[in-house]
Design a protein that fits this description.
Layout: H1 11-14, H2 23-39, E1 66-71, E2 77-79, E3 82-84, H3 87-99, E4 105-110, H4 116-129, E5 134-136
Parallel strand pairs: 1-4, 4-5
Antiparallel strand pairs: 1-2, 2-3
């Protein structure tokens, strides 16, 4: 029994295969991808809300009083339709509102063309004097 051993000097015997076998690499990557997808927490499309606790108390017997402050385009101040001549008169009325135990709501309604300094002046005066229930109304005019 004899064995034929080549000399190793031939061209066909000396070629080395340089390509990497990527099949095991792809298999491992697919397994890792599947494991990653499984471990991701399921996202719920729910909104967490803190709902108010039901209150069995009776609603207030009278609706709150509302004071409407209008600011015209030139800075003219109106108090429930009455023109206020100066800032001192406005502050005295705001001080009366702040002194009440159950403060009325103050609705500030600026004109679309009024400069911000007039709005800021009224709001700063109200805050400094202690008016707590104040809000800007009529914002729908600023949409366009």
């Amino acid at each position: 029994m004899a064995m034929n051993v080549g000399s190793g000097g031939g061209e066909e015997a000396g070629d080395v295969m340089v390509d990497i076998n990527t099949t095991p690499l792809i298999d491992v990557m697919l397994v890792l991808l599947i494991m990653f997808i499984i471990t991701i927490p399921i996202q719920t499309h729910a909104v967490k809300m803190n709902m108010p606790v039901p209150n069995n108390a009776a609603p207030p017997p009278t609706p709150p009083t509302i004071i409407r402050i209008d600011l015209d385009f030139d800075g003219t101040i109106g108090w429930n339709g009455e023109i206020i001549p100066d800032r001192a008169t406005l502050e005295s009325r705001l001080q009366q509102v702040a002194a009440e135990p159950d403060q009325p709501e103050v609705h500030l309604r600026p004109n679309k063309l009024v400069t911000y300094k007039h709005v800021a002046m009224v709001m700063a005066s109200a805050q400094r004097l202690g008016v707590t229930k104040i809000g800007i109304v009529g914002n729908e005019q600023f949409l366009n």
